[in-house]
Amino acid sequence: MSEGSIRKKSKSSHEISWEEGRDATGKRVRRYQNIKGPRKNAEARLRQILSGRDRGEYVEPTKMTFGELLEQWLDGYVAQNLRPSVQDSYRSQVKNRIAPALGGIPLSKLTPLQIQAFIDRVFARGRLDGKGALKRRTPELLLKIIQGALHYAMRMELLTRNAAKSVVLPPTEPGTFNIMEVRDIPAFIRAARETDYFLVYLLALFAGTRLGETLAPRWNDLKNGMTQLSVVRSLYKRGGVCEFLETKTKYGRRLVALPPVLVGLLKQHRVHREAERALLGLTLKEDDLIFVRYDGTPFDPSTVNHTFGKTLERAGLPHIRFHDLRHSHATHLLAAGVHPKIVQERLGHSSIAVTIDTYSHVVPGLQEMAAQRIEAIIGEEAMEELRTINVEKSVSIVPVVGQAQHVGKMLVNLSRKLDIIRDIEREPHRNRTCNLLIKSQLLCQLS
Questions:
Q1: What b-and-e string marks burial along 198-228, b requiring 16 or more CB atoms within 10 Å of the CB?
Q2: Which of 328, 334, 399, 406 suits 424 as a labelling partner, its CA being 20 to 30 A distant?
Q3: How far apart are CA 46 and CA 15, in angstroms?
Q4: Cα–Cα distance between 297 and 295 in angstroms, integer?
């Protein structure tokens, strides 16, 4: 194939052309592109295209806008692979923030500078409703969406690079959340036991499950004598309709051990449910939901959320979200010295790094706890040896004294040299010097 050509079109633009193989009929395919600026710009672009063509990496510029790509990505990959709650969050951010700012830009012309300027601008403006600064998660989420859409474009061979990969998030403080303090749990239990959702709240607090995961289990999801909960699906409410969806990630599908007190309460709940079904002439099935309304339908997530807030008010406790029960579970386990890997597995995080990044700043005692455990690690024998050591007798100070004397002599010599230099600087300017030091040096040279 030819190496391409450059043709001047005007004072400020050039046309480059190159061959790109043959079509289905065997006819040669020639591509053209206009480049603004001096000839060197056209030469650089042509070299880039030819290099990509020879490596099989060249992608013909598309007329698709970034907004069109986002819609295709949301309707395709996102809808098929992510949880409904995540889909809703992505669509909201695209509609309210990303599309208005970047949606009209041609996909092939979207640059890292444009994306960086967008992220910085969003961070500087704060919340859309004007009520304060953004949470740390918002810029991270926006960049994650943009990177994901552009990565999808690369897989679809619409782009050869991801322009968002070089974008840097502005420095922010770690995200904050509220938890239910240990001292508040008794008051919460007393208030919650009067509601229909008492065991729902306890499961979220004692197992760290999300709201949808808490409402979805069936009796056959309780394993090993009801001592473990198999988390395999979630309940979602979209458009006023509740639906169950299987957990899609291997990390989200997990087996969570339950504390004995909760196991006992669940067993009591089963006996109660069996009695209710018997009154209706029915039997309790293993695939029946654990938590249901009187007619056997699942609890409404919105109602559970609302009642949770009312329960906190009745108990006289600070307001937290239902999801903060999950944060409370993780925080209290870490504060008690449970290994972060175990906490990660209970929560269904994709990696231990996610767990540590999320919770390390709310457990200030972890460092002190680690320091205290060092003594237990090295053993009592080593500790006895350390307790008998007298540092003053173990460390000789003679070398230190010798070093101090040596340093003192150096400082004295340096001071003398500085005095000579200052004397020289104070001498009046003359053609013939009267400085004795210089004269002595000259006499030594002549002799």
A1: bbbbbbbbbbbbbbbbbbbbbbebbeeebeb
A2: 406
A3: 10
A4: 6
Facing residues of 33 across strands? Answer: 16
CA distance 173 to 191: 35
The verdict on 331 and 197 lying in the same domain is: yes
Q: Which two tokens stand for residue 215?
A: 């409402």
Output the pTM of the full model.
0.65
CA separation for the pair 246, 253 (Å, rounded) = 9
Question: Position 171: which residue type?
Answer: P
Q: Specify burial of residue 397 (Cβ count, 10 A radius: 0-12, 13-18, 19+).
A: exposed
Is residue 432 assigned to a domain?
A: no
Locate the DSSP E strands across 239-283.
241-246, 254-257
8-45 tens-digit pLDDT = 888 888 888 888 777 677 788 787 778 888 888 888 87
Same domain, 308 and 347: yes
Tell whether 207 and 314 lie within a shared domain. Answer: yes
Domain that holds residue 40: 5-55
276 shares a domain with 151 = no
